[in-house]
Recover the amino acids of this structure.
């Protein structure tokens, strides 16, 4: 089975712009979660989507949004970028229906905001 | 609010040593605990998942234990190798059927040949 893929892998944007990141989960997985990783804050949960519905949301401002498509692929959007949004963005997938499931992470998208 | 702490933040050992990484969490009402490995600039690889009802899990040279009542987990690595050099992260899940994990800051391990 192919693993979780994320595109693009690297991105440079300037303050005020917006960005869209994409995540393709493992085939058959219906749950996709997004995380932000920074040196200062570590790994922080952004949100989770399951069957095209947001199921959980972390403590991030409304500039961070996401969606999931019928094929389980997910996108994350950040509007009005700030310098502090520079981070590694990771997505993770799992089946979403089991009770004790591990999560499979993608390689991440590294975003640099100038 | 659940908080996860990992000690030490960094560790350097000679090849062949057995070592223990520690993880503590403030709220014992967890659903499961997972240990991950992260290589520089890469995503996370799951190592072990321990259900809240379990005391330990083993995979090869790795053994993870869980003491829910005291809010602690340890990851034991036997006969360490240079290829084990990475950052090790523990994460807890607070409820069933959720993708939300709360992570510790990680322990960066260097195994010297």
């Amino acid at each position: 089975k192919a693993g979780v893929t994320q595109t693009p892998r690297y991105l440079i944007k300037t303050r005020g712009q917006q960005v869209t990141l994409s995540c393709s989960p493992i085939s058959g997985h219906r749950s996709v979660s997004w995380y932000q990783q920074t040196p200062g804050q570590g790994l922080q949960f952004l949100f989770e989507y399951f069957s095209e519905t947001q199921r959980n949301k972390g403590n991030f401002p409304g500039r961070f949004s996401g969606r999931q498509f019928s094929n389980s692929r997910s996108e994350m959007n950040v509007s009005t970028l700030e310098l502090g949004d520079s981070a590694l963005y990771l997505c993770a997938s799992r089946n979403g229906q089991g009770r004790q499931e591990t999560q499979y992470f993608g390689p991440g998208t590294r975003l640099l905001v100038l | 609010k659940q908080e996860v702490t990992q000690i030490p933040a960094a560790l350097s050992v000679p090849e062949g040593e057995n070592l223990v990484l520690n993880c503590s969490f403030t709220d014992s009402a967890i659903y499961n605990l997972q240990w991950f490995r992260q290589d520089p600039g890469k995503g996370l690889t799951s190592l072990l998942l321990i259900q809240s009802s379990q005391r330990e899990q083993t995979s090869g040279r790795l053994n993870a234990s869980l003491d829910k009542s005291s809010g602690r987990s340890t990851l034991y690595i036997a006969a360490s190798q240079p290829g084990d050099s990475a950052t090790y992260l523990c994460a807890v899940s607070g409820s069933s059927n959720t993708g939300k994990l709360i992570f510790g800051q990680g322990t960066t391990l260097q195994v010297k040949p």
Notes: The two ends of chain A are 37 Å apart (CA to CA). Chain A is about 0% helix and 55% strand.
